[in-house]
Amino acid sequence: MALQESGEMYLETILILSNRLATVRAIDVAEQMGYSKPSVSRAVGLLKKDGYITVDGDGFLSLTHSGRQIAEQTYERHILLAKFFIRLGVDEETASADACKIEHVISQTTFEAIKKHAEQSIQPDV
Amino acid sequence: MALQESGEMYLETILILSNRLATVRAIDVAEQMGYSKPSVSRAVGLLKKDGYITVDGDGFLSLTHSGRQIAEQTYERHILLAKFFIRLGVDEETASADACKIEHVISQTTFEAIKKHAEQSIQPDV
DNA sequence: TCAAAGTGTTAGCCTATACTAACAATAATA
DNA sequence: TATTATTGTTAGTATAGGCTAACACTTTGA
């Protein structure tokens, strides 16, 4: 079945953690997301079954090609949306929280339109 | 408990239908949303229990004050977001679909920032 | 009048996704 | 080495919110 919103969130979290830590395991994901170990264990099993991540013998998680694609796409959306909201005057925390919700439901079409708009309306620091 | 995304969607639908029909009943909501009668029946029961709508002896649905507030807020978000996306070059259908998702998850803060931005950047027809 | 259509409800099922409790396996250390 | 801590899994629970099947009214109209 297609990846749900929560699946995207797990992949994005794994990406972010792997940019910060040498290795990523389920417990790191649980701590980062504020979820219980069993919830993450289950999610990891599903993501693995569907080919989005691999888990090696030591319990280290890695994104597969398709998993990484989704994680990066989601993360790009997050960064750009949050930046855009901040530029509109929204505080960082709210901007990030909203980006975190919207990144999963927005279409590629609309995201790209916002991206183009945001890039166009950048005010250079003269 | 707090109103969920689906509850907002029901209230918004009832508002839209009541602007279009003399009376609104569960079956109209079901047809409009593409849901089954039992799903709507259940949702109507919950919305009624929580004081967002009333149902009279003939099965006609009305928004209460709090229900109308939420419906109007949600609808306002929908309209403004969709317009904004369309102005950025997104086709109507996609813009509306995205607005429909985002309207439920965006914070008031971020919505107002987008609203202000959208109003500022209106290009008057000279 | 009596059958058919329209409307709503009840009962029970399904999926997604979180949770706790309890256990198992491994690693670290007194 | 024996205990404790860390990590992961299993089993079962809960909530939200769809669904179908089946039934009960009510209204309509031949």
Structural descriptors:
mainly alpha, 126 residues, two-stranded antiparallel ribbon, Diphtheria Toxin Repressor, domain 2, Arc Repressor Mutant, subunit A, homodimer, DNA-binding, 2 domains
Query: In terms of structural class, how would the helical and strand content of chain A be classed?
Result: mainly alpha
Biggest sheet of chain A: strands, sense, closure? 2 strands, antiparallel
Q: How many discrete domains of chain A?
A: 2
Oligomer: homodimer
Shape of chain A: elongated
Order of helices and strands of chain A: HHHEEHHH
Instruction: Work out the helix count of chain A.
Output: 6
Biggest interface, CB < 8 A: A-B, 21 and 21 residues
Would you state the CATH class of the largest domain in chain A?
Mainly Alpha
Evaluate the radius of gyration of chain A: 16 Å
Whole-number average pLDDT of chain A? 94
How many DSSP-defined strands of chain A?
A: 2
**Which runs of chain A of at least 5 residues are low in confidence (pLDDT < 50)?**
none
**Helical content class of chain A:** 55-70%
CATH superfamily of the largest domain in chain A: Winged helix-like DNA-binding domain superfamily/Winged helix DNA-binding domain
- CA distance, first residue to last residue of chain A: 50 Å
Strand order of the largest sheet of chain A: 1-2
Give your account of this protein's structure.
- The structure is a homodimer of 126-residue chains.
- Chain A is mainly alpha-helical and 126 residues long.
- Chain A has 2 domains: 5-65, Arc Repressor Mutant, subunit A; 70-121, Iron dependent repressor, metal binding and dimerisation domain (Diphtheria Toxin Repressor, domain 2, Orthogonal Bundle), CATH 1.10.60.
- Chain A is 67% helix and 5% strand.
- Chain A has helices spanning 5-18, 26-33, 37-49, 65-87, 92-105, 108-120; strands spanning 53-55, 61-63.
- A two-stranded antiparallel ribbon of chain A has the order 1-2.
- The longest helix of chain A is centred in the middle third of the chain and has 23 residues, at 65-87.
- Chain A is elongated and about 50 Å long.
- The mean pLDDT of chain A is 94.
- The structure holds a DNA duplex (30 and 30 nucleotides).
